């Protein structure tokens, strides 16, 4: 079974631009979560989508948004990029079986975003 | 304030030594996961624990979930250079809630 894939793997942008990152979950997984990872803050939760609906949201400004398509693929968008947005953006997929708190997350390799 | 704390933050040991890393919280978690992450890659799931007091073994790695489900430990026996990486614990308090991650323990095993 193919794992979680993220595209692109590397991206360089300048301040003020916007960027869209893509994530394809493991086949059959309905939940997709996005995380930002930086050396100073570690892994920070951005948002989770389940069946095309945002189910949870972290404490990030409105410049960070996402969506999920009917095939469970997800995109996240960051508008008006700032230098501090430079990070590894990770996507994780999960089956999210009903009422199972042990639903395991599987991560993609991440997209390394550099903002100049 | 981190919901999950990990210690130590950094650990450098010689090949063949044993080590334990800890993941602690003042909150109760319904499940907890351990991951290992290598530079430039996403975290790889090692284990999920859901029952207080549960012990799981994965070759030379032993994971334990505290009786009160507020803490966990990862013990590595006879560490090898291939064990080098960032070890992350992550917990979820209830179904439908997002996972929270600890800051990680960066392990370096020297040959």
Structure summarized in a few sentences:
The complex is a heterodimer of chains A (116) and B (111). Chain A contains no helices and eleven strands.
What do you see in this structure?
The complex is a heterodimer of chains A (116) and B (111). In chain A, a hairpin with a 5-residue loop joins strand 7 and strand 8 (74-78). The model of chain A has no long low-confidence stretch (mean pLDDT 92). Chain A has strands at 5-7, 10-13, 19-24, 31-38, 42-50, 53-57, 64-68, 74-78, 87-94, 106-107, 111-115. In chain A, the strands form 2 sheets. In chain A, strands 2, 4, 5, 6, 9, 10 and 11 form a 7-stranded mixed β-sheet that branches. Chain A contains no helices and 11 strands. With 116 residues, chain A is mostly beta strands. With 111 residues, chain B is mostly beta strands. In chain B, 0% of the residues lie in helices and 52% in strands. Chain B has no helices and 11 strands. In chain B, strands 2, 4, 5, 9, 10 and 11 form a 6-stranded mixed β-sheet that branches. In chain B, a hairpin with a 5-residue loop joins strand 7 (61-65) and strand 8 (71-76). The mean pLDDT of chain B is 93.
């Amino acid at each position: 079974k193919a794992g979680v894939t993220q595209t692109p793997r590397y991206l360089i942008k300048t301040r003020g631009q916007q960027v869209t990152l893509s994530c394809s979950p493991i086949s059959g997984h309905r939940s997709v979560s996005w995380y930002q990872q930086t050396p100073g803050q570690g892994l920070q939760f951005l948002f989770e989508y389940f069946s095309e609906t945002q189910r949870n949201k972290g404490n990030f400004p409105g410049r960070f948004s996402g969506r999920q398509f009917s095939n469970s693929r997800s995109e996240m968008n960051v508008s008006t990029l700032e230098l501090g947005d430079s990070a590894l953006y990770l996507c994780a997929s999960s089956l999210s079986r009903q009422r199972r708190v042990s639903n395991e997350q599987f991560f993609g390799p991440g997209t390394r975003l550099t903002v100049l | 304030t981190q919901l999950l704390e990990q210690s130590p933050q950094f650990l450098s040991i010689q090949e063949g030594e044993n080590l334990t890393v800890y993941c602690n919280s003042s909150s109760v978690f319904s499940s907890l996961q351990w991951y290992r992450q290598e530079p430039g890659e996403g975290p790889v799931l090692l284990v999920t624990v859901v029952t207080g007091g549960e012990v799981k073994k994965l070759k030379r790695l032993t994971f334990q979930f505290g009786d009160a489900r507020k803490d966990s430990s990862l013990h590595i026996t006879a560490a090898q250079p291939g064990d080098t990486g960032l070890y992350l614990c992550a917990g979820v308090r209830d179904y439908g809630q997002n996972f929270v991650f600890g800051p990680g323990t960066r392990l370096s095993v020297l040959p």
